[in-house]
C-alpha cells in the first residue's frame, strides 16, 4: 500500500501540469456534481419529511382552483369519516408588522391555520408544546429565526408582540426550521380563531362563495383518496349558475404538490420547477462526463508513456495482477483525492455560489454518513470503470514490447480519443448555445413588458399612510424631482385579486373572470400604458368615479365585439357597484413573463396599497437625496410602521428571480463545464505536441515555417470542433426548443445562436491549443531530434 | 560554399557551460564531399547543425554561399535552408504517420511547388532510389536500408546544392550501408556538395577530404589525392 502511495506521488510529480489538470478538472467537476446533485436531491425530496406524508393531501385543482371556502372544513368534519383531520391554511393579504416591546418593528409574514396543523405537518418545537399551540385565539407560533429577530437570544415563549401596531399576540411556541426542503414557507403561524379577530369578516366562515383557504386533509390509514375526494366534492351546494368543474377537484398527495406549478397569490406555499432541476442535473452529468473524458485522455496518454517502467517491473518479477492492482489503485487514489478536494471546494465556495445563484440546500446533508459512503462508493465505481481497460492492456502487454516501446497506440486509440474530444466539444457547444438562449429569453422577458418601469419608486402604504394619502401626495408633489404620484393596488410581483362577475351583455348572460387593480388616473401616466380603444378615466371628472379600463385579453376572452360602454359589477360584493368600461389598454405583462397575460380590469377606486412616484432625475446624488427626503416624509406620517421603498424596475426584475437565478446557475455551471473542457483540451494539446515533437522537428528541418507547424497542430482541433458543431446543432436546437415550450412568451431561436456557439467553441479551442502549438513550433528542431 | 571563421558554440545550463565548438575554421567548396570524423562529443553534430542552418553559433562568422548567416533569425534561416540544404540522419527521421510518397513529397510542399510538379519529381526520385514499389508503405513496414533510401530521396527531392548527412550508415548493416554510400557518391558526382559526419573510416573513405575534430577543434584535415 505504501508503495502505491509512493509511486502515485512520484508519477504525479513527474508530470505536474497534466496531473494537476486531471486532478483539478475532476475535483471541480465533482464539486459541481455534489452541489447540483445535493440541490436536486433536496428539491426532489421536498416535503418528504412529514411523518404522515403518505396520508397527507391538498384538496383542490392544482391546475386551477386552489381556494376553498372555510365552511368546507366544517362539512368535511361532519360528513367524511375517512378524514382524520382537515386543516385550513391562509396567508395574510398584507405583510404583517410585528413589534416586540420597544424594539424596531419588523415586516414579516403570517399564516392562519387550524389547530391540527402540527398534527398534519411535522415540525420540531424549540420552545413550548406544539399540540395545542394554535388552539387559543391571539396566540402565535414563531420560527426560531423570527423569534431571535424579535426577542434576541431570550426565550420567546409566553412573551407578547404587537401585530400591525394594534392587536397583541402571545407566543405559544417556537419551532425549529425544518432541515429538509419544504414548500411551506412562513415565519409566524397563528390560529384560525385569531383570524376571526384580526381579519374579521363574518361571511368568510359561513358563505360558500368566500374562497380564501387551502384545505389540507389527513386521511385515516387505509382510506382511499379518490373515494374521499368524491365525498368531499359532494359537500358543495349545487348551484345551476355555478360553472365550476367539480370533477377537477381532487385530493392531491402533498408530496407531489411542490412540483405541480399551482398558482396561489400568497407566498406561504411555494412551488418548484422540476424541469429546471432536471436541466441542472443534466448539466451535472455533462460536467462529470467532460471531466471523465479528460481523465481517460490524460491517463491513457500517460500510461502509454509509462510502458517502459511497466516493462522493467515485469522483468524484475512483477505479476500481471500486481501491475493491474497498481494501475487501478493509482486511479482510485486520484479519484479519492479529487473527491476530498471537491468537498473542500464545496465547503469554501458554496456560500458564494448559493448567494449568486439562489441555489439552497441544507449543508448538513454533506455530512450525512450515507452521503459520504455513497460518494466514496461512486468514486470507486467510476475509477474502476474508467481505468479497467487501460489497466488490462498495460498489465497484459509483454515485458519485451514494453521495454522496446513497441506497444504503439493503434489507430483505434487515436479514433477513440478523437471521438472523446469531439464529444467534449459537442457538450461545450450545446452548453454555450443554451447559455446564450437563456440569456436571450431573460432579456426578452424583462424588456418587452409593454409598460414603463424606469424611474419609478413604490412605497407600500402602511395603515397610517393610508389614512393620510392626500397629505402625503401633496408633500410629494411639492418636490421638483417628483413628476407624478399615483395610488394603486399594483406593484410588480404583488398578488392581485381574482374575481368573477355574472352580467347580462346584449341579452346574453356572461360570466366574466378577471384580475383586478384599483388605481387612480395617474397610474396610466406613470406606467405609460397604451390605449387600444376608448380613453383612460380622469381624476378631474367626478363622473369618472365608476369607470373602468380593461385589457385586450379581457375583450378577447369574453368575446366582446364592442367593449366600450359595457357595464359590469366589479369589486367586493359588499361594495356592489356597476362600473362602465370606457377604455381598452394594450396587453402588458403585469405578471411574470412566463405566465400568460390574464383578463385584467383596472378601476378607479381608492382602496389601494402602493404609492407610485415617478421621478424626473437620473442623477445619482439627486436621486439619492430625493429618496431619502421621501422616506423621511413617509416616516413622519407613519411613525409606527417601517416604511419600505422599492424601485419599480427592481420589483419587475424580482418577478423573474426564478429565471434570473436559473440563468446565473446555468451560466456559472456551464462556464465551469467549458473551463474543465478547456483544461482537457490543454492536456490533449500538451500530449499531442509531445507525441509529435519528432515530426515537428523533421518538418522544420525540411522547411516548415512556424505558422505552418501551428496550422498543422491546430488542424485536428478545428476538425473536431467542426464535427462537433454538426452534431451539437440539432441536439442544442431540440433541447432549446423543449425548454422554450415552458414559456408563454418566448424569444426566437435565431441561427446566429448556433453560429456564435460554434465560433466560441472554436475560439476557445484555438486559444487553448495555440499556446502549446506555438511553444512546440518555435522549439529548436535540433533539440526535438535529439530528444528522440 | 561554406566558410566559417572562429566558429564557437557554447551550451549553457543552470550549472555548467560546455564549449562544443571552439574557434572552428571550416571551409567547403562547391561540389566537394567532406567527411567529419572524431570521437563522441567532439562537436561533429553541432558543427553539422550550424552548417545546416538549424542552429546559430555563439560567436564567429559563417558565410553560406557568400551570405553571412551567423546571426540570422530562425525564419530567415528556414527560408534559406528550404531548397538549398537536404538532411540525412542516422535514425532516418521519417514521419511515421506519412507513407513513403508523402515523406518524400513533404519538402516540396513547403517550397509551394504545384501538385503536378511535385508528383513528377517524387515519382522520378523514388524510381531512382529504387523504392517506387514501396511508395504506399509506411516507414515501419520498411527495412532500415529502405528507410534510409527514403530519407535520401527526401533530402534530394528539392534538388539542394548541399546534403548534410549525420552518420547515415550508423543504423544499417554493411550491405545497406554500402548502398547508401554509393548513392551519396553518385549524388556528389552529379554536383551535389556533401558534408557527412561519420565514425566509420570505411565511409569516410568515400569523401574527398576528411576533417578530424577533437574537443571542439579541428585537429587535422586530410585531403585525398584524386584517383586514389
Quick rundown:
The complex is a heterodimer of chains A (788) and B (228). Chain A is built from 25 helices and 24 strands.
Mean pLDDT of chain B: 89
- Low-confidence region ranges of chain A: none
Globally, the shape of chain A reads elongated
The total of helices of chain B stands at: 7
Q: Biggest interface, which chains? A: A-B, 19 and 24 residues
Descriptive notes:
With 788 residues, chain A is of the alpha+beta class. In chain A, 51% of the residues lie in helices and 16% in strands. Chain A is built from 25 helices and 24 strands. In chain A, strands 1, 2, 3, 4, 5, 6, 7, 8, 9, 10, 11, 12 and 13 form a 13-stranded mixed beta sheet that branches. In chain A, strands 16, 17, 18, 19, 20, 21 and 22 form a seven-stranded mixed beta sheet that branches. Chain A is elongated. The model of chain A has no long low-confidence stretch (mean pLDDT 85). Chain B has a six-stranded mixed beta sheet with strand order 7-8-9-4-10-11, with helices on both faces. The radius of gyration of chain B is 17 Å and the shape is globular. The longest helix of chain B is centred in the last third of the chain and has 16 residues, at 174-189. Chain B is α/β, with parallel strands linked by helices and 228 residues long. Chain A binds chain B through residues 694-695, 697-706, 708, 778, 780-782, 785, 788, and chain B through 49, 52, 54-55, 74-75, 78, 81-83, 87, 89, 91, 93-97, 106-107, 110-111, 154, 158.
Task: Fill in the keyword field for this structure.
heterodimer, A: 788 residues, alpha+beta, seven-stranded mixed β-sheet, 24 strands, B: 228 residues, alpha/beta, six-stranded mixed β-sheet, five-stranded antiparallel β-sheet
Task: Please give the structural blueprint.
The complex is a heterodimer of chains A (788) and B (228).
Chain A: H1 2-14, H2 16-44, E1 56-60, E2 68-69, H3 71-79, E3 83-91, E4 97-99, E5 106-107, E6 111-113, H4 117-120, E7 125-128, E8 139-143, H5 144-151, E9 160-163, E10 167-175, E11 188-191, H6 192-198, E12 211-219, H7 225-233, E13 250-253, H8 254-257, H9 274-305, H10 307-315, H11 320-357, H12 369-396, H13 399-404, H14 411-447, E14 456-460, H15 463-467, H16 469-477, E15 482-488, E16 497-505, E17 508-518, H17 522-527, E18 531-534, E19 547-551, H18 552-557, E20 567-569, E21 578-585, E22 600-603, E23 610-615, H19 620-637, E24 645-647, H20 648-655, H21 657-691, H22 693-701, H23 706-740, H24 751-777, H25 781-787
Parallel strand pairs in A: 6-11, 8-10, 17-22, 19-21
Antiparallel strand pairs in A: 1-12, 1-13, 2-12, 3-6, 3-12, 4-5, 4-9, 7-10, 8-11, 9-10, 14-23, 14-24, 15-23, 16-17, 18-21, 19-22, 20-21
Helix pairs in contact in A: 1-11, 2-9, 2-11, 2-21, 9-12, 9-14, 9-21, 11-12, 14-21, 14-23, 14-24, 21-24, 22-25, 23-24
Chain B: E1 2-12, E2 17-24, E3 27-28, E4 33-37, H1 44-51, E5 59-64, E6 67-68, H2 74-81, E7 85-88, H3 100-110, H4 115-128, H5 144-156, E8 162-166, H6 174-189, E9 193-197, H7 201-204, E10 209-214, E11 217-223
Amino acid at each position: 500500500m505504501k508503495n502505491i502511495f509512493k509511486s502515485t506521488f512520484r508519477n504525479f510529480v513527474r508530470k505536474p501540469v497534466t496531473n494537476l489538470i486531471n486532478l483539478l478538472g475532476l475535483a471541480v467537476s465533482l464539486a459541481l456534481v455534489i452541489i447540483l446533485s445535493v440541490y436536486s436531491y433536496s428539491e426532489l425530496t421536498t416535503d418528504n419529511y412529514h411523518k404522515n406524508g403518505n396520508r397527507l393531501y391538498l384538496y383542490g385543482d392544482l391546475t386551477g382552483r386552489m381556494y376553498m371556502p372555510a365552511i368546507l372544513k366544517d362539512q368535511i368534519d361532519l360528513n367524511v369519516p375517512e378524514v382524520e383531520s382537515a386543516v385550513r391554511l391562509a396567508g395574510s393579504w398584507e405583510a404583517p408588522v410585528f413589534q416586540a416591546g420597544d424594539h424596531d418593528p419588523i415586516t414579516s409574514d403570517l399564516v392562519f391555520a387550524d389547530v391540527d396543523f402540527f398534527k398534519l405537518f411535522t415540525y420540531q418545537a424549540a420552545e413550548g408544546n406544539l399540540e395545542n399551540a394554535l388552539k387559543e385565539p391571539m396566540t402565535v407560533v414563531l420560527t426560531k429565526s423570527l423569534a431571535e429577530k424579535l426577542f434576541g437570544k431570550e426565550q420567546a415563549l409566553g412573551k407578547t408582540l404587537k401585530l400591525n401596531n394594534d392587536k397583541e399576540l402571545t407566543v405559544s411556541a417556537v419551532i425549529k426550521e425544518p432541515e429538509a426542503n419544504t414548500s411551506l414557507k412562513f415565519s409566524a403561524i397563528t390560529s384560525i380563531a385569531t383570524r376571526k379577530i384580526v381579519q374579521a369578516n363574518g361571511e368568510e366562515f359561513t358563505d360558500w362563495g368566500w374562497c380564501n383557504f387551502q384545505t389540507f386533509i389527513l386521511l385515516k390509514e387505509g382510506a382511499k383518496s379518490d373515494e374521499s375526494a368524491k365525498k368531499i366534492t359532494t359537500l358543495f351546494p349545487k348551484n345551476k349558475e355555478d360553472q365550476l368543474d367539480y370533477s377537477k377537484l381532487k385530493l392531491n398527495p402533498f408530496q407531489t404538490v411542490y412540483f405541480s406549478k399551482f398558482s396561489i397569490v400568497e407566498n406561504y406555499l411555494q412551488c418548484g420547477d422540476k424541469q429546471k432541476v432536471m436541466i441542472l442535473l443534466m448539466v451535472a452529468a455533462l460536467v462529470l462526463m467532460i471531466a471523465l473524458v479528460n481523465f481517460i485522455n490524460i491517463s491513457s496518454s500517460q500510461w502509454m508513456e509509462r510502458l517502459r517502467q511497466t516493462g522493467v517491473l515485469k522483468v524484475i518479477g512483477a505479476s500481471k495482477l500486481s501491475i493491474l492492482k497498481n494501475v487501478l489503485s493509482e486511479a482510485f487514489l486520484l479519484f479519492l483525492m479529487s473527491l476530498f478536494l471537491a468537498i473542500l471546494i464545496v465547503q469554501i465556495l458554496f456560500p458564494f455560489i448559493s448567494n449568486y445563484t439562489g441555489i439552497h440546500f441544507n449543508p448538513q446533508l454533506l455530512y450525512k454518513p450515507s452521503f459520504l459512503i455513497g460518494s466514496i462508493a461512486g468514486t470507486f465505481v467510476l475509477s474502476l470503470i474508467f481505468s479497467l481497460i487501460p489497466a488490462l492492456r498495460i498489465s497484459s502487454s509483454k515485458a519485451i514490447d514494453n521495454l522496446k516501446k513497441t506497444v504503439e497506440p493503434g489507430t483505434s486509440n487515436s479514433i477513440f480519443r478523437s471521438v472523446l474530444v469531439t464529444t467534449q466539444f459537442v457538450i461545450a457547444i450545446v452548453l454555450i448555445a443554451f447559455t446564450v438562449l437563456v440569456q436571450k429569453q431573460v432579456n426578452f422577458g424583462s424588456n418587452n413588458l409593454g409598460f414603463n418601469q424606469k424611474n419609478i419608486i413604490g412605497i407600500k402604504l402602511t395603515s397610517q399612510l393610508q389614512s393620510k394619502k392626500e397629505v402625503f401626495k401633496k408633500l410629494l408633489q411639492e418636490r421638483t424631482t417628483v413628476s407624478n404620484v399615483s395610488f394603486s393596488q399594483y406593484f410588480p410581483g404583488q398578488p392581485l385579486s381574482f374575481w368573477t362577475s355574472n352580467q347580462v351583455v346584449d341579452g346574453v348572460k356572461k360570466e366574466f373572470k378577471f384580475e383586478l387593480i384599483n388605481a387612480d388616473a395617474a397610474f396610466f401616466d406613470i406606467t405609460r400604458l397604451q390605449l387600444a380603444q376608448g380613453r383612460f378615466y380622469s381624476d378631474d371628472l367626478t363622473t369618472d368615479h365608476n369607470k373602468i379600463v380593461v385589457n385586450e385579453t379581457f375583450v378577447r376572452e369574453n368575446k366582446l365585439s364592442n367593449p366600450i360602454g359595457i357595464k359590469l359589477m366589479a369589486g367586493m360584493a359588499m361594495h356592489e357597484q356597476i362600473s362602465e368600461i370606457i377604455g381598452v389598454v394594450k396587453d402588458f405583462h403585469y405578471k411574470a413573463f412566463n405566465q400568460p397575460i390574464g383578463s385584467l380590469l383596472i378601476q378607479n377606486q381608492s382602496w389601494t396599497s402602493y404609492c407610485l412616484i415617478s421621478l424626473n432625475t437620473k442623477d445619482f446624488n439627486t436621486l439619492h437625496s430625493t429618496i431619502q427626503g421621501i422616506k423621511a416624509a413617509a416616516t413622519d406620517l407613519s411613525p409606527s410602521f417601517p416604511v419600505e421603498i422599492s424601485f419599480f424596475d427592481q420589483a419587475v426584475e424580482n418577478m423573474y428571480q426564478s429565471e434570473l437565478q436559473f440563468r446565473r446557475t446555468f451560466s456559472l455551471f456551464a462556464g465551469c463545464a467549458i473551463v474543465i473542457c478547456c483544461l482537457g483540451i490543454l492536456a490533449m494539446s500538451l500530449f499531442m505536441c509531445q507525441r509529435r515533437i519528432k515530426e515537428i522537428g523533421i518538418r522544420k528541418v525540411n522547411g516548415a515555417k512556424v505558422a505552418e507547424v501551428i496550422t498543422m497542430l491546430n488542424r485536428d482541433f478545428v476538425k473536431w470542433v467542426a464535427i462537433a458543431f454538426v452534431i451539437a446543432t440539432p441536439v442544442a436546437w431540440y433541447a432549446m426548443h423543449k425548454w422554450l415550450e415552458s414559456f408563454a412568451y418566448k424569444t426566437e431561436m435565431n441561427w446566429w445562436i448556433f453560429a456564435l456557439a460554434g465560433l466560441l467553441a472554436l475560439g476557445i479551442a484555438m486559444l487553448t491549443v495555440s499556446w502549446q502549438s506555438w511553444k512546440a513550433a518555435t522549439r529548436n528542431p535540433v533539440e526535438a531530434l535529439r530528444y528522440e | 560554399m561554406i566558410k566559417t571563421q572562429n566558429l564557437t558554440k557554447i551550451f549553457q545550463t543552470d550549472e555548467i557551460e560546455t564549449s562544443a565548438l571552439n574557434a572552428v575554421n571550416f571551409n567547403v567548396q562547391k561540389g566537394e564531399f567532406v567527411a567529419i570524423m572524431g570521437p563522441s562529443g567532439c562537436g561533429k553534430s553541432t558543427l553539422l547543425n550550424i552548417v545546416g542552418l538549424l542552429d546559430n553559433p555563439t560567436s564567429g562568422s559563417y558565410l553560406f554561399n557568400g551570405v553571412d548567416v551567423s546571426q540570422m533569425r530562425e525564419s530567415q534561416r528556414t527560408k534559406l535552408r528550404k531548397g538549398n540544404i537536404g538532411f540525412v540522419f542516422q535514425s532516418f527521421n521519417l514521419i511515421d504517420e506519412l507513407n513513403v510518397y508523402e515523406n518524400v513529397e513533404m519538402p516540396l510542399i513547403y517550397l509551394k511547388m504545384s501538385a503536378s510538379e511535385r508528383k513528377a519529381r517524387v515519382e522520378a526520385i523514388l524510381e531512382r532510389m529504387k523504392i517506387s514499389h514501396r511508395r504506399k508503405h509506411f516507414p515501419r513496414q520498411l527495412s532500415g536500408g529502405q528507410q534510409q533510401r527514403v530519407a535520401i530521396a527526401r533530402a534530394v527531392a528539392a534538388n539542394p546544392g548541399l546534403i548534410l548527412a549525420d552518420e547515415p550508415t550508423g543504423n544499417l548493416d554493411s550491405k545497406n550501408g554500402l548502398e547508401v554510400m554509393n548513392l551519396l557518391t553518385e549524388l556528389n558526382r552529379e554536383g551535389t556538395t556533401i558534408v557527412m559526419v561519420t565514425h566509420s573510416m570505411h565511409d569516410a573513405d568515400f569523401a574527398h577530404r576528411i576533417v578530424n575534430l577533437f574537443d571542439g577543434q579541428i585537429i587535422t584535415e586530410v585531403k585525398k589525392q584524386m584517383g586514389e
